[in-house]
């Protein structure tokens, strides 16, 4: 045991030194919003004035034109455009940054964008507002119950509308996946920020595994480079059980989503979920569990026969689950992103209508973001919903 | 008795006059060369009554020089000029203040033999012809007829005073008093400004917080030596510090230098609650700035004094190389104080004349290995505009740094 401890300590020291040796200018962990990539003047303007300069589009003479001249303002926080607008000025319809709004202006990543697409009222079909997160919406988030996860009433979107920064840290942080974790969460944000690893080898101590070659260099401005970083085909979620507030979690992504949708999160025994051991198995779920419920498992680990791990493992096209083994899926637990695209897609509620044996996809580059169809079935909402449930459940399938 | 009293009065008057002459002759009170007595700037250094001079003032020798000479023995090639100037206005100023070894060089590269420590506090002007690295968008451009960015004199209750959009464009005298004023830092004006708006200054190893500017050099300072080894300290970035002298003149200010700048750039000046700046107390802290405040907002302070967390005084104080701020707590050296009341203002981020950076910004790293008019870099970073901008913001802000 002493020898194991020494080995562990040596390993820990080596890891620490390794981290310290990573050059600070290397875009640590690949996030563009932090480090030496995104610069203050990309989003902020001190005086809301750019009448002088090298040129109106390249006032700093850097050779990199500012593509978005000042129009509406001055704005709070010295932003070049109102909030959401400043984010979407890069992240919608631009070839140089991942497109997160509606149709993808770039070539589609393999399997589509892992997070799908947000929408807004003006966007319309096929990205209606009820198919995902709607920026500017003043609706209260469905299932909003922050006390369940130990938060006070933090959400301000019912007054100011849903903003990108309600979910993402705009100044970036090298540690959380996709800069998740709103500043509005204050000092508690760290509890809701999923970690990640970029490598062809997984690290099950991290919430998210981005299965691409390391190192990944952000800021290339080239979809061919950044697409793999956002591709559904390359993103996997590990199972890391824990508790956040009064709710169980199997991945901090779930904890993060619960900051707005707490009533829909948790595991067996949590009040919004239900499910208490009875007759040796979990009984009485009130809502679909989103943590610590192994597919097909009996006893306290699962729901005894109401789902089937054999079925899930046999799927040639699988939805995402929380697991420490992405081959056997022996401990696979469903969570929010099992069924929903985080931003949204073209399906109701951002649901992923993925057949167990998908060979056909919706038209357009975003097709795989909606899921996929087998060769014979009609492409209807009903069939799609059945497909999704049928990933794990044989009932009615 | 009456006769003796009268004689005493005459004697006192004469003595006083002599003393005054001696004082003026000893170097221009408060160090200003443009004002003063017998051995500083004289009328004929800049003016010619008839734009004709065949002989020198002190001899019958022919006049040959067309650039400034001792005792006024020169005449420009272009003229006659308005205001009886020996050369067109800007050209006249630059005939001394550009490319000579006897007067501070304010235009483009510094030709003075002795360079001020950390560069010229005001940096350098430019014009259309100068070119790289002093392009026109990197500072004040003499001769430019552009409307000053942010020009809104009504915010200060000034009339529409600026005349540089026509004719000869921006002139030195739009900012400086050509005939000098001993009480005004760098002869800042101009005449059309209301009284009481010019920044005051003190020269000495001890600060005077009642003055806007502290020139931290031994007193007395003798102007007019014509020797850059003597005058470089008077203009060096390393020796100039700015006190906090809060007030309101239409807009809030924390140093009267801001009022000078605001005369042309009012939209960019002011403090919390001024309409063009924004920032009103909410939830106990200032919220909603529309433009960066340049007055009466303490770095890192919470509550009505600051912006609660958006900047950090701890960070700023820890900087080994700091930008200038308006503070009454800059310490005994100007850099070793607590800065507990430090407020950013225009010269925190910009050189007064300009430099080689976009918009004359001062790209100064928190831990620069050396400092010049452009700022300074730490030992490892790439010397790019992006890094420089991040350096500047990073003086007070940790976000993105």
Structural overview:
The complex is a heterodimer of chains A (397) and B (401). Chain A is α/β, with parallel strands linked by helices and 397 residues long. Chain A has one domain (99-397). Helices cover 18% and strands 7% of the residues of chain A. In chain A, the strands form four sheets. Chain A has a three-stranded mixed β-sheet, with no helix packed on it. In chain A, strands 4-5 form a two-stranded antiparallel ribbon. Chain A has a two-stranded antiparallel sheet with strand order 6-7. The longest helix of chain A is centred in the N-terminal third of the chain and has 20 residues, at 2-21. Mean pLDDT of chain A is 86; it is low at 11-30. Chain B has 401 residues and is α/β, with parallel strands linked by helices. Chain B has one domain (116-401). Chain B contains eight helices and eleven strands. Chain B has helices at residues 2-25, 43-46, 89-97, 228-235, 256-265, 313-318, 346-349, 385-393; strands at residues 126-127, 141-142, 201-203, 213-215, 240-242, 247-249, 251-253, 278-282, 285-289, 363-364, 375-376. Chain B has a three-stranded mixed β-sheet with strand order 3-4-5, with no helix packed on it. Chain B has a two-stranded parallel sheet with strand order 1-2. In chain B, β8 and β9 (285-289) form a beta hairpin. The longest helix of chain B is centred in the first third of the chain and has 24 residues, at 2-25. Chains A and B meet through loops of A and β9 and α8 of B.
């Amino acid at each position: 045991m002493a020898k194991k401890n020494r080995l562990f300590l040596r390993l820990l020291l080596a890891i620490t030194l390794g981290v310290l040796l990573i050059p600070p200018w290397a875009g640590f962990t690949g996030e563009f919003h932090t480090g030496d990539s995104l610069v203050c003047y990309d989003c902020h303007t001190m005086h809301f004035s750019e009448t002088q300069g090298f040129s109106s589009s390249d006032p700093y003479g850097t050779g990199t034109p500012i593509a978005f001249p000042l129009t509406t303002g001055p704005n709070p926080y010295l932003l070049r455009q109102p909030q959401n607008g400043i984010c979407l000025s890069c992240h919608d319809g631009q070839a140089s940054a991942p497109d997160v709004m509606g149709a993808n202006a770039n070539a589609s990543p393999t399997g589509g964008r892992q997070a799908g697409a947000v929408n807004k009222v003006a966007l319309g079909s096929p990205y209606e507002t009820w198919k995902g997160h709607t920026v500017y919406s003043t609706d209260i988030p469905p299932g909003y119950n922050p006390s369940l996860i130990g938060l006070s009433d933090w959400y301000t979107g019912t007054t100011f509308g849903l903003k990108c920064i309600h979910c993402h840290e705009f100044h970036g942080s090298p540690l959380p996946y996709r800069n998740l974790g709103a500043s509005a969460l204050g000092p508690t944000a760290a509890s809701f920020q999923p970690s990640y690893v970029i490598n062809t080898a997984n690290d099950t101590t991290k919430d998210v595994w981005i299965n691409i070659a390391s190192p990944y260099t952000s800021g290339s401005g080239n979809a061919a480079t950044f697409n793999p970083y956002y591709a559904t085909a390359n993103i996997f979620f590990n199972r890391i059980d824990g508790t956040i507030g009064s709710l169980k979690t199997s991945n901090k992504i779930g904890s993060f989503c619960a900051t707005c949708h707490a009533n829909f999160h948790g595991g067996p025994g949590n009040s919004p979920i239900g499910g208490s051991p009875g007759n040796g198995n979990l009984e009485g779920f009130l809502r679909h569990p989103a943590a610590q419920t192994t597919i097909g498992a009996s006893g306290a680990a699962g729901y005894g026969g109401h789902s089937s791990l054999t079925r899930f493992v046999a799927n040639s096209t699988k939805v995402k689950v929380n697991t420490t083994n992405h081959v056997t899926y022996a401990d696979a637990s469903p969570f929010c992103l099992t069924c929903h695209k985080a931003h949204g897609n073209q399906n109701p509620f951002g649901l992923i209508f993925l057949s167990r044996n998908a060979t056909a996809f919706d038209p357009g580059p975003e097709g795989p973001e909606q899921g996929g169809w087998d060769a014979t079935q009609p492409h209807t909402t009903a069939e799609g919903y059945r497909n999704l449930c049928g990933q794990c459940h044989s009932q009615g399938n | 008795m009456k006769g003796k009293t009268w004689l005493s009065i005459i004697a006192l008057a004469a003595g006083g006059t002599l003393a005054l002459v001696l004082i003026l002759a000893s170097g221009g009170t408060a160090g200003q060369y443009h004002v003063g007595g017998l051995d500083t700037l004289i009328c004929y250094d800049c003016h010619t009554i008839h734009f004709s001079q065949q002989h020198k003032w002190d001899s019958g020798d022919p006049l040959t020089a067309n650039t400034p000479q001792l005792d006024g023995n020169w005449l420009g090639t272009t003229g006659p000029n308005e205001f009886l100037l020996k050369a067109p206005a800007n050209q006249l100023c630059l005939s001394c203040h550009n490319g000579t070894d006897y007067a501070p060089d304010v235009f483009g590269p510094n030709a003075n033999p002795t360079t001020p420590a950390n560069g010229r506090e005001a940096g350098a002007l430019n014009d259309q012809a100068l070119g790289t690295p002093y392009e026109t968008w990197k500072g004040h451009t003499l001769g430019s007829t552009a409307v000053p960015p942010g020009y809104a004199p009504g915010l200060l209750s000034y009339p529409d005073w600026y005349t540089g959009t026509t004719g000869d464009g921006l002139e030195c005298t739009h900012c400086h008093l050509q005939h000098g004023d001993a009480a005004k830092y760098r002869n800042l004006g101009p005449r059309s400004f209301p009284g009481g708006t010019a920044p005051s200054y003190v020269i000495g190893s001890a600060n005077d917080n009642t003055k806007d500017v502290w020139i931290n050099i031994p007193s007395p300072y003798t102007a007019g030596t014509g020797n850059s080894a003597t005058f470089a300290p008077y203009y060096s970035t390393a020796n100039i510090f700015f006190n906090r002298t809060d007030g309101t003149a239409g807009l809030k200010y924390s140093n009267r230098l801001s009022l000078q700048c605001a005369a042309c750039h009012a939209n960019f000046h002011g403090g919390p609650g001024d309409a063009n700046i924004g920032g009103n107390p909410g939830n106990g802290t200032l919220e909603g700035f529309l433009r960066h405040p340049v007055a009466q907002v303490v770095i890192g302070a919470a509550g009505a004094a600051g912006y609660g967390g958006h900047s950090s005084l701890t960070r700023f104080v820890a900087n080994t190389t700091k930008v200038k701020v308006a503070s009454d707590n800059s310490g005994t050296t100007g850099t070793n104080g607590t800065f507990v009341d430090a407020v950013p203002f225009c010269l925190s981020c910009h050189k007064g004349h300009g430099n080689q950076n976009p918009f004359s910004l001062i790209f100064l790293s928190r831990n620069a290995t050396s400092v010049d008019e452009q700022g300074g870099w730490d030992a490892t970073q790439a010397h790019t505009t992006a890094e420089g901008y991040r350096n500047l913001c990073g003086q007070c802000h940790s976000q993105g740094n």
